[in-house]
Design brief:
Elements (H helix, E strand, L loop, with lengths): L5 H4 L22 H12 L2 H4 L4 H13 L5 H9 L4 H14 L9 H12 L7 H12 L17 E3 L22 E2 L3 E3 L11 E7 L2 E6 H7 L1 E6 L2 E8 L4 E2 L1 E3 L12 E8 L3 E5 L5 E2 L9 H5 L6 E2 L2 E4 H7 L4 E3 L36 E6 L5 E5 H9 L5 E2 L2 E6 L2 E5 L8 E5 H7 L4 E2 L6
Length: about 450
């Protein structure tokens, strides 16, 4: 995830100056038609043509005078893609005229977007149309991604990387993207001498088989389409939300081809937006339901398997028969986003976060018998289990597996569960309960 490159700063020809044409403040409040007219001038086909001149600046002035704060969402979108510095300044200036905020040069886009999310400012007329125009100037391959559906496009932004649109089975080809891995090579535990015992891994158990996905590899790949225990599945990992999940992709409605999930390069409140490369249908990464495209029309929801976040040494000792992704998949890289880039909290706007837990506290997310989401703070749950206490809610029991946490039913069957930062879990499941230890 990066700030826009110097090349992107030249995306739009400025064509403006402090003497840019300004519209007079209207004597009557702007109507919906007025707003749409000015939006079309400022953010219409001129974006594709790479021009932003006096007419566009005059339209910005008219939008600022309109008092319609909804317009600020489009200002935010264009600011994120890094236009000419003068255009960026004028966009921020327009936002300040519409909202009770002050924007500094260093974090204008971040401050603006956080405000819009927190205040739940509605979207302007034809918002998706303008958003698609803005984003596809940067990357035309996004055109089918920006489609109507059960997704709040206000909260979607650019993560600083490009889409991985390589067809299934061709992930050995280089890409200017976060490169997913299809059917990745694996080795036995004894052959994984390169992996330190304290390295974080995501452990998966399906059909009596076990596999470890080292975080070092998943921070490079962020998406794996794999098979284990006779099942096909995809594992997205979002470095920003510290969430690795497993979605079964082999049991879908009749006539639907197995989805092959990829990283879109987009984010929604600091969580990755994944999509099916075959149909360009977008999925909610935290819930597994298709939210746009033909798979949304077919109401495809991908069931989840449990993922255990632990260390390689603990997982290997508990499951010596485990396989593990081959070191080659790391491409020679060794990131540590959690203790580096993300050490001071979310680096993308998320709005206000439920204050019941620290923003980046690790929680195990589970669904109770009645469907209510429940968050188990990881450190507190592990400490209670070490003392021999029961950790659970209703028929859910949380146990230690290979050094990490796994949720089971009262019959000992796996319950869908995975770890994530608190901010990520609660923004997708705002009604979540928090498990609290009951003193003995």
């Amino acid at each position: 995830m990066h700030r826009p490159t110097c090349a992107l700063l030249l995306l739009f020809a400025c064509g403006g100056s402090d003497n840019a044409a300004r519209s007079e403040t209207p004597s009557q409040p702007a109507t919906e038609t007025d707003i749409e007219h000015h939006l079309e001038i400022a953010f219409g086909d001129n974006l594709r043509e790479g021009t932003f001149g006096p007419a566009q600046f005059a339209a910005l002035d008219a939008l600022a005078a309109s008092g319609d704060r909804r317009v600020a969402w489009i200002l935010s979108d264009l600011m994120r893609l890094g236009p000419d510095p003068y255009i960026y300044f004028r966009l921020a200036q327009t936002a300040e005229a519409l909202l009770p905020i002050t924007l500094t040069e260093e974090d204008a886009w971040h401050t603006l977007t956080n405000y819009l999310i927190t205040a739940d400012v509605p979207a302007p007329p034809n918002y998706l149309t303008y958003k698609r125009r803005i984003f596809t100037v940067l990357l035309p391959q996004w055109e089918p991604i920006f489609a109507p559906g059960n997704i709040d496009w206000r909260h979607v932004t650019w993560g600083g990387v490009r889409i991985d649109d390589r067809p299934y089975g061709r992930t050995d080809e280089p890409c200017n993207c976060i490169p997913a891995a299809d059917d990745p090579p694996v080795t036995s535990a004894t052959d994984a001498a390169w992996l330190d015992d304290d390295a974080v891994v995501f452990g998966v158990a399906i059909g009596g088989e076990y596999r470890a996905y080292p975080r070092q590899i998943m921070e490079v790949r962020e998406m794996v389409n794999d098979r284990l225990g006779g099942r096909a599945f995809a594992m997205p990992y979002c470095t920003l939300s510290a969430a690795a999940q497993v979605y079964f992709t082999d049991r879908v409605p009749e006539g639907v081809e197995r989805p092959i999930l990829r990283t879109s390069g987009l984010l929604i409140r600091s969580n990755k937006v994944m999509y099916d490369v075959r149909t360009m249908s977008v999925f909610d990464t935290f819930r597994g339901d298709a939210v746009t495209g033909v798979l949304a029309e077919r109401q495809v929801v991908l069931p989840q398997a449990a993922v255990v976040t632990t260390t390689w040494g603990a997982w290997r000792r508990a499951h010596p028969e485990t396989t593990v992704l081959d070191e080659r998949l790391a491409l020679g890289r060794d990131f540590d986003f959690r203790n580096g880039r993300d050490a001071n909290g979310p680096i993308f706007p998320v709005g206000e976060v439920d204050p019941r837990l620290p923003v980046q506290e690790d929680v195990l997310g589970v669904f109770a018998d009645d469907g209510t989401p429940v968050a188990f703070p990881v450190e507190a749950a592990l400490a209670a289990l070490r003392r021999g206490e029961r950790v659970g809610e209703g028929s859910i029991q949380v146990v230690v597996d290979g050094g990490g946490l796994r949720a089971l039913t009262d019959r000992g069957e796996d319950r869908q569960s995975h770890q994530a930062f608190w901010f990520a879990w609660v923004q997708h499941h705002p009604t979540t309960r928090i498990w609290r230890r009951v003193p003995l």
